[in-house]
User: What shape does this take?
Amino acid sequence: MMKKLNIIGTAFIAMLFLTITSYAQELTASKPVSATPEAQVKADAEVDKKATDWVNSLSLNDKEKEGRVKEVIAAHLKAIRDWNNSHSYESVPAGINPESGKPLSTMDRQIIVNSSLPKSVHENLMTGLRKDLSEEQVQAILDKYTIGKVAFTLAGYKAIVPDLTPTEETAILTNLKQAREQAVDFKNIKQISAIFEIYKTKNEQYLNNNGRNWHQLFKAYVEATKAKKAADAAAKKSAQ
Assistant: This one.
């Protein structure tokens, strides 16, 4: 279930999220993507359908409210898509991570430039959703964007740390929710996962700082999982 992933320069990228916006907005995309009119119409239709499906899942039973929420989501999805497509990773210099000395990856650079998306795009989404939806419904929509990664990742922590305390769970969940809200402004699941990695690292540091040993916990979980698979395979073989 849970796999320890590391992306190059996690701490560096987190810092850049706070400082790069004003700079990157001035960059000119090196390889803008231009779609044919037919392709644009098709792409917009796909976004509209996704927004419709997400809103329908809420069962609002209010046509006017449904229409407003669909419009808010569709506008946001299109803005994210267009920004990603028109801002190449090459807009960010191919430098190095000052902490590790390793070159920034293509993913690092794309995330950096995508993080320079105007703040108004995110603000319009959240304001529009909260205008017509309860907080629980807002979170349900954010889960649609991120394919339920908050619940999935939290379940992984509970599996790795069986005696997770309520306080620890609250801290971890807070970080995961922050990851989810930030991740909705990125285009695809690889970028979304990279954002979650930043906050997963924060969670592991939190556990280490509060008397846990994440490395040992994860190692024990992996070993137990392997042992269970081996035992299940042996039992299946003996039953044949």
About this structure: The mean pLDDT is 86.
